[in-house]
Amino acid sequence: MRLMTHVRVSSDGGFEVRIVVPAALRTTIGKTNLTRRLGRVSKSDANRLAAPVIQHFRDLIERAKAGRLDDPSPVPAISASPAKPSNTLRRQASSPNLMAIFEGYLRERQPSPATVKRWRPVIVHLVGHLGHDEPRRISADDIIGWKEALARQGVSGRTIREVYLASIKVVLAWGVENRKLEANPAAGVSVRVPKRHRPRGPSFTSAEARTILSASLCRDHGKISPEHALARRWIPWICAYTGARVGEIAQMRGCDIAEVEGFWVMRITPEAGSTKSGQARMVPLHPHLVEQGLPRIAQRAGEWPMFFDPARGRGGSAGNAHYRKVGERLAAWVRELGVDDPHVQPNHGWRHLYKTLARRAGMEPEVRDAIQGHAPRSVGETYGEWPVDVLARAVSLLPRFSVGEPLNSASPPAGTLTTL
After folding, report:
1. Phi, psi of 64 (to 5 degrees)
2. What is the phi/psi pair of residue 303, to 5°?
3. Burial of residue 146 (number of CB atoms within 10 Å: 0-12, 13-18, 19+)
4. Using CA atoms, how far apart are residues 413 and 400, in angstroms rounded to an integer?
5. Which of 144, 229, 342, 350 qualifies as a FRET site for 45, CA 20 to 30 Å off?
6. CA distances from 246 to 58, 169, 281, 317, 331 (A)
7. What pLDDT score does 408 carry?
């Protein structure tokens, strides 16, 4: 149903009548706009309630034109319910609660387990703050009050904006799209955050990369599991030469590394665990990884994960998968090595460094984005496939990393190590 002329959505997510006063009459009437709130009602009720208000405002403007503003007739009273219960009121009596809307969104959109794990507590927190779980009773002022309460609790502005508000906006928008709600009270609510102060770039420096890669070659990592020792040994090198996310590598199975058309490649696929885009991609291994023996390590693992043993886990869950712990432990280990600048992430720094080195090597932007799993920049870039030989040529452009003598090792692994 379309709204009548002069009826629009108000700032609180309801409806209002708004008529602009002609410029010549603004001094006479004393206002720029004539406005009256109609409340949080359905479109049909908004049109019904608006009709007498619009007529009253039009009469007021006509009297002003004639120089007669002594008519004492009041603005018609707003009654949200007609003589008989409206369809809107009947729907409100049986409208789903906030968690039910969230569950409906999950069933339809099927976001990643990590997203579900992060967003569910947000919904619970909002319900706890409001003291009820009726989405039709939530106003824009309620959302603003929640935002301010989070800030008082010490939650950063960036987290409020990118986690709390972002999730509730999406869920309520789904409710509006599916006619569970009339309006989204979170729409338009945001948080102003200061620009991040970056005294340095997000990439590892050459010295930091050498520190991590050299430590990865250590023969004695102390009392850790064989799988985690393999993770320390190989994941930094794989990330350095592929720019992949640590989680994508931590979940890999041995069978995800194979020879295709004469090139050793690794398949980063949701079948192994999770990818940010939900899309699989194939990345050729750098010759240096092949020389160091990565395919041989993969063949030993076979169908089994390379860097963790599911049998040793405590059950885990889709939102708290085993491979996530691998990434967390690697990050802690990197910090222990002295790569502890808070302005560079201990795992994600490899992705930034890869992009830097790929640019320096002259790799085409479209190719490096495909290798790293970044979104195409245009519809045209989504067409066609990426032949493995084309990707392999691009990967071979990258220089080899030089780390010097590995710690606690008589000799480095096979392969010539040249300057980073």
Report:
1. -65, -40
2. -80, -5
3. buried
4. 13
5. 144
6. 65, 29, 15, 19, 10
7. 40
Per-position DSSP letters for 61-106, written without gaps between them: HHHHHTT-----PPPPPP-SS-SSPPHHHHHHHT---HHHHHHHHH
* Overall average pLDDT of the 324-341 stretch: 94
CB atoms within 10 A of CB 149: 13
Q: Among 187, 125, 191, which residue's Cα sits nearest to residue 158?
A: 191
**Site of tokens 């405002």:** 57
Using the predicted structure, report yes or no on whether residue 86 has a pLDDT greater than 60: no
Give the three-state DSSP class for 315: coil
Rg over CA atoms, the chain: 30
Q: What's the pTM? A: 0.65
At 366-404, the pLDDT tens digits run 999 999 999 888 888 889 999 999 999 999 999 999 886
Residues 6+ apart with CB under 8 A from 233: 216, 217
The values of phi and psi at residue 33, to 5°, are -135, 145
Domain ranges in the chain? Answer: 7-93, 98-177, 206-395
Note whether 5 and 58 are within 8 A (CB): no
What are the pLDDT digits (tens) for 88-101?
Answer: 444 444 568 999 99
